[in-house]
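From the methods appendix. Each design record in this collection lists the tokenized structure first, followed by the designed amino acid sequence. Records were kept in a plain field format so they could be parsed without special tools. The example shown here is representative of the layout used throughout.

RECORD:
FOLD TOKENS (351 positions):
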């Protein structure tokens, strides 16, 4: 018979998803995973994947159990199929088998070819009851970066821009103009901490001289990415200060130094697909794009985006550089940050 999750099962999986979310910005390029262990309706252990290279969620949850004699009669809720291969850590499926847990409830199966059903089968072969697909849609959204990276062989791409009430990104001739307010600025730094890398084009780098770090929010700085086809950016700009890993995509040759690497690409029309392929090879799981209209419109035109976050401020410019147009297609969420409105869009499959 198909498994029907009880209200308690749903509650425990939601708790596991909440725990998994705590690893955002730290577990990458690994997925976000949370784990809850129960015995006769009581939580006896919890854990999540806190840091790439560190113990997985199942290990942390089991280590938190103060009554290990209960494990053979326990039910384990985990947001992603337990791994069945040796990576940075031993297989979690083997650990659950060793502890002789009774049941394992899984939110999502792992699309990674190194796992892909192997963990599930290993548990079942050991006599453990395994059920899958509990809150599956919520789990896929939580791990949308990981699933996109595995299934589409490219990073998850988030577009971000701030626009005025009359639809401009900047003043005439790309003159930088403050648009969004303080709360939105802090939110952008939070978004930076959540993504693996951050991308700007030549014009944005030249006019704004951005630092592209997370000084307004706790977390890890993203890898900085900049397109500089002809190596025209001044070496005195913040992007070249060596303070965080930086990749420069260019048509020219230049040796890297001071935490800055130059990636030479052929002069061709498929610049952005090549950039995304390179990032996938480097295991960069997601990219926040803070570029100008050329970069944003190119990614929108080619369908190389997954999410767009648009900050609309009450300021009116009356002229300048037009913002991209998305309309209401794919609008997922809308909320206010002070005087600014934030619109979150999700690209429709096949769009």
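DESIGN:
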């Amino acid at each position: 018979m198909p498994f029907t999750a009880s209200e308690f099962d749903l509650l425990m999986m939601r708790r596991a998803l909440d725990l998994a979310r705590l690893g955002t910005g730290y577990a990458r390029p690994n997925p976000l995973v949370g784990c809850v262990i129960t015995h006769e309706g009581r939580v006896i252990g919890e854990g999540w994947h806190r840091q790439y290279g560190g113990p997985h969620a199942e290990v942390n949850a089991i280590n938190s159990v103060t009554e290990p004699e209960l494990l053979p009669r326990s039910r384990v809720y985990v947001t992603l199929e337990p791994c069945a291969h040796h990576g940075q850590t031993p297989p979690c499926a083997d650990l659950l088998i060793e502890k002789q847990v009774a049941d394992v409830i899984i939110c999502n199966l792992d699309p990674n070819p190194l796992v892909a059903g192997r963990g599930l089968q290993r548990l079942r072969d050991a006599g453990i009851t395994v059920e899958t697909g509990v809150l599956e849609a919520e789990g896929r959204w939580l791990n949308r970066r990981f699933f996109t990276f595995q299934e589409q062989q490219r990073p998850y791409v988030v577009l971000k821009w701030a626009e005025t009430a009359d639809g401009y990104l900047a003043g005439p001739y790309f003159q930088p103009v403050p648009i969004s307010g303080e709360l939105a600025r802090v939110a952008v730094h939070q978004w930076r901490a959540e993504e693996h890398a951050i991308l700007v084009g030549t014009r944005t780098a030249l006019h704004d001289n951005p630092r592209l770090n997370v000084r307004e929010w706790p977390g890890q700085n993203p890898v900085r990415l900049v397109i500089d086809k002809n190596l025209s950016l001044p070496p005195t700009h913040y992007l070249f200060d060596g303070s965080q890993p930086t990749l420069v995509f260019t048509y020219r040759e230049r040796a890297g130094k001071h935490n800055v690497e130059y990636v030479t690409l052929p002069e061709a029309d498929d610049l952005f697909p090549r950039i995304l392929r390179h990032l996938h090879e480097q295991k960069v799981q997601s990219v926040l794009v803070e570029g100008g209209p050329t970069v944003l419109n190119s990614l929108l035109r080619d369908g190389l985006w997954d999410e767009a976050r648009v900050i609309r401020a009450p300021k009116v410019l009356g002229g300048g550089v037009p913002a991209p147009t998305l309309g209401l297609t794919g609008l997922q969420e809308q909320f206010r940050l002070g005087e600014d409105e934030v619109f979150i869009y999700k690209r429709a499959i096949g769009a």
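APPENDIX NOTE: The first helix runs from residue 7 to 21.
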